[in-house]
Specification:
The structure holds two protein chains of two kinds. Chain A is an all-alpha fold. Helices cover 73% and strands 2% of the residues of chain A. The longest helix of chain A is centred in the first third of the chain and has 36 residues. The two termini of chain A are 54 Å apart. The relative contact order of chain A is 0.09. The N terminus of chain A is likely disordered. Chain B folds into three domains: 50 residues; 44 residues; 228 residues, MetI-like fold. Helices cover 66% and strands 7% of the residues of chain B. Chain B is built from twelve helices and three strands, in the order ααββαβααααααααα. In chain B, helix 8 runs antiparallel to helix 9. The chains are: A mainly alpha, B mainly alpha. The interface between A and B is large, with 84 and 88 residues.
Chain lengths: 531, 346
């Protein structure tokens, strides 16, 4: 023992310096380990800070919805919806007029003046139909003013409360006491509004009587197709009239004091079909139009990018000569290096116009949606995003194809299969899990892309009209990424709008995590065991 | 008898014809993608070259590279059409008072140059890459040299994978929430650096790990067998061989950092700023100032000002310069990587 001690001292001279009981090497190890944790920390911080800024949204949105109810805005919107539905019906009529006009001028070859003369009866009918809503319209515009006044009072009170709170925080109690807060007595304020119920019933009855009257005078249209539309219009109007009692019962059972359930703050965001901000009447934060916009643009992009990307991967991996491979691969990598803002600019400056010009070419008029007039729309953004997604899909799919063992291919050839059969029946199925995950990662890239959609998607916040069929891709939309980029710079910090944008960010974050997760699962679970 | 007519020549059956057709489609898809890329780049290069180059010596439009953006004034003077930048227009107006009476159209940002944007982009790239490389290389060393497989490492790898998929605008929101508001750095270089660094971190870690993996095991074992510590082995026998690979692969990360707009929109970029970054009162202010950046400038000039013959010049010119910078970085990365592959063969 005595003899070995100096010898071991000589051998183990590495750990002489000690810090918190750790040797020098351990310290270095801990230092490097600390750096490795950074990625976990960053991920956690992203989650935390998105929620920190966004979580307040739900409380504020509930408050927003409560005021909507208490100030009587909700009550009036029942009646307003009735008015809006009537407007939709008149729009149907004007569409019908356009069709008749086209029939007269294009098929019957009448001069414009004659066509208009023939339409005089119809115009008279449409005019009368449009006027029937008058009693309701007057009522709504009166009520709107009253309700706005109540809301205004409430806002002023909230501002005063805030002012007082700030003064108290600064310790100026005297000044704070001088801020007079007059609480809004909603029951009292709402009385005149609710008091109009009998008047509404009267107006509504008058309205429905007038509609019946006008409907009886509906003119007969010149062709069977148009007559079918007219009958459809009559049917729609009858359905509309049969909905009147429901409105009355809504109004009768409406109670301003009924609390807004907490969950509605969430559901009105997730299922809300309107994103309306800085409105004089009521702000809505519904994510559906943005989500649908993002999904539509991504769908178009993937529809274009998947065949191109996977096709190119198969070509490069299986068919191309080595010389071709040598310039195709860097070429496609080069495309992935084009910054998205440059692609967006290209879309605004060149592609938007070029596609519109193409859509107006007469030999392409059979394509649904062609010709169109909006330069920036789903299609423009989708094409550019496809160009961004192709390199991602190509690279990953090519990797997947590359991982298929040679033996698979050789066995297939040995059995007498042609090259095409080998590619379609052996190589692609064997690497399918990799190709699917490549497509999913491409989707992740496309859905999270900001600049291209911000510049080229048209930025109209509305759910695209799916009744147009495939032509829906020629409509402008707004996207989740685009709305954050566009509105974040202009909102007041801490306002409900600001928080709503963070909640959109949270949704986007978890959407991309989900896509990533599914891609990993697909690779792991469905990989054909290669052995 | 020609060689192609020998007896065993493959028959042109319908199956073979179909194969040829389908393979042609795959080829067409590939070349169509390349063509699209070429059209995008070609359009911007051709139209942008008009701004960046000029017919007279020194053949390069130096004002475009050395001056700040200005408003462009277009007006009629004595029957001639004049186009002047803001400063020149003021002096001209002072010399010819009758100009003020005539009609004059002005277009913001359409005259002058993009010097502050170039400077801002360079600063953003250098700073964020310095942060990202430090963190990324150290993390990769840990993952490749120290870590044993376990739950912790699985978590780290999962985090890296997921971080790579987070949309850039979410990084922007995150940077805004933590650096701009929580830390109170406001819109500043520092906030932009960290936001971009975290965004590019997964790329750097993956690239570094690959380069470290490429160093043969024997290098480590030899060093350890001679009695060196783990740390000595890494610093003397692993890193020197991995470093060129790490740096070249990270260049692709640079291209990404330089090209992203969304993360810097709320964290570091200003639409316009008169002062250059080094014109600060005290040294610490340098880190807490916003800058103009090329990608953000392109966004501003392509969305906030109308499209016409006067604004087009600055739009295409900026896009061209930006594309050129990013393309140079990307090409450098590809070329260096290929050369490196040939240099070290173990």
């Amino acid at each position: 023992m005595e003899a070995s001690s100096p010898a071991s001292h000589l051998l183990v001279n590495k750990s002489r310096i000690r810090l918190f009981g750790l040797s020098f090497d351990d310290c270095i190890r801990v230092f490097f380990g600390g750096n490795a944790i950074v990625s976990i920390i960053v991920l956690a911080l992203i989650t935390y800070f998105l929620f920190r800024e966004g979580a307040g949204f739900f409380g504020q949105n509930r408050q927003n919805l409560t005021v909507y109810r208490q100030a009587g805005l909700e009550y009036i919107d029942f009646i307003r919806a009735q008015q809006d539905d009537h407007t939709a019906l008149t729009r149907y009529l004007s569409d019908l007029r356009l069709r008749q006009f086209r029939h007269y001028t294009q098929e019957a070859k009448l001069p414009v003046a004659d066509a208009n003369a023939k339409l005089a009866v119809f115009d008279d009918f449409a005019g009368q139909f449009g006027d029937t809503v008058e009693p309701i319209r007057t009522l709504v515009s009166d009520l709107t003013e009253q309700a706005s006044a109540i809301k205004e009072k409430f806002t002023v009170m909230e501002d005063k409360k805030e002012e007082r709170r700030q003064l108290m925080a600064e310790g100026r109690k005297g000044d704070a006491d001088r801020v007079i807060i007059t609480p809004v007595n909603f029951a009292e304020e709402l009385k005149p509004i609710i008091g109009t119920l009998p008047a509404y019933k009267e107006a509504s009855a008058e309205f429905s009587r007038r509609i019946e009257q006008v409907l009886a005078t509906a003119p007969v249209l010149p062709t069977p197709e148009l007559q079918v539309r007219m009958d459809r219009f009559k049917q729609l109007t009858r359905e509309y009239l049969s909905g009147f009692p429901a409105v009355v019962s809504h109004l009768e059972s409406w109670d301003y004091a009924k609390p807004v359930p907490a969950v509605q703050a969430l559901t009105s965001f997730i299922f809300g079909r309107e994103w309306l901000t800085a409105s004089f009447w009521q702000d809505w934060y519904g994510v559906i139009p943005l989500l649908v916009g993002s999904l539509m643009v991504s769908a178009v992009a993937l529809l274009l990018a998947v065949p191109l990307g996977v096709g190119a991967a198969i070509y490069v991996n299986q068919i191309a000569t080595p010389a071709e491979q040598k310039f195709i691969k860097p070429g496609i990598e080069f495309i992935s290096a084009i910054p998205s803002v440059v692609l967006g600019f290209f879309g605004i400056a060149v592609l938007g116009q070029a596609l519109r010009a193409l859509s107006q070419a007469s030999w392409l008029s059979w394509v649904p949606g062609f010709p169109y007039s909006e330069r920036l729309n789903i299609l423009t953004a989708g094409c550019l995003l496809a160009l961004m997604a192709v390199p991602t899909i190509f690279t990953l799919a090519e990797d997947a194809l590359n991982n298929v063992p040679r033996a698979f291919k050789e066995a297939s050839f040995a059995l007498g299969a042609t090259r095409l059969q080998t590619v379609i029946k052996i190589i692609v199925p064997a690497s399918l899990s990799g190709i699917i995950s490549a497509v999913l990662l491409g989707l992740g890239r496309v859905i999270g892309e900001t600049m291209v959609v911000l510049l080229c998607a048209g930025n109209r916040i509305a759910i695209p009209d799916f009744s147009a069929g495939l032509a829906v891709v020629t409509q402008p939309v707004h996207t989740m990424t685009g709305i954050i980029a566009q509105e974040m710079g202009e909102v007041v910090q801490g306002s409900i709008h600001y928080r709503a944008l963070f909640v959109v960010g949270i949704l986007l974050f978890f959407l991309s995590l989900g896509i990533n997760y599914v891609a990993q699962i697909v690779v792991r679970r469905y990989r054909i065991s290669i052995g | 008898m020609p060689a192609t007519h020998h007896v065993f020549r493959a028959q042109l059956t319908s199956a073979r014809r179909r194969e040829g057709f389908i393979f042609f489609l795959f080829g067409a898809a590939t070349y169509f993608v390349l063509l699209c890329g070429a059209v995008v780049i070609g359009t911007i290069v051709v139209r942008g070259a008009g701004t960046v180059f000029q017919a007279r010596a020194p053949f390069i439009n130096t004002t475009f590279f050395t001056e700040a953006p200005e408003s462009l004034h277009v007006f009629q003077y004595q029957g001639r059409k004049m186009e002047l930048g803001d400063a020149a227009f003021r002096t001209f107006e002072a010399a010819h008072p009758d100009v003020a009476k005539g009609k004059s159209d002005s277009y913001v940002y359409s005259a002058g140059g993009i010097f502050p944007c170039i400077v801002g982009t360079v600063l953003l790239v250098v700073g964020s890459m310095a942060i990202a490389l430090t963190l990324g290389v150290c993390a990769a060393i840990y993952l490749n040299e120290y870590a044993r497989d376990g739950t912790f490492i699985r978590f780290v790898r999962l985090a890296i994978l997921n971080l790579a998929g987070v949309p850039s605008i979410v990084f922007g929101l995150f940077g805004f929430g933590i650096f701009v508001i929580f830390f109170g750095w406001n819109v500043s270089l520092l906030a932009g650096w960290f936001t971009l660094a975290f965004m590019v971190l997964p790329v750097i870690i993956t690239a570094s790990e690959e380069s470290l993996k490429a160093v043969p095991k024997g290098f480590r074992e030899g060093s350890l067998a001679l009695g060196a510590t783990k740390w000595q082995t890494i610093i003397k026998n692993v890193l020197p061989y991995a470093l060129p690979g790490i740096l070249t692969s990270s260049i692709l990360g640079i291209a990404r950092v330089a090209g992203e707009t969304a993360p810097i929109m709320f964290t570091a970029a200003y639409v316009v700023r008169d002062k250059l970054p080094w014109q600060v009162d005290k040294f610490s202010d340098f880190f807490f100032q916003g800058v103009m950046a090329l990608p953000y400038h392109i966004y501003v000039v392509s969305s906030k000002i109308p499209q016409n013959e006067y604004t087009e010049r600055v739009q295409y010119g900026t896009a061209f310069v930006f594309l050129l910078i990013v393309a140079l970085i990307a090409t450098a990365s590809i070329v260096l990587r290929n050369r490196l592959r040939n240099r070290y063969k173990w």
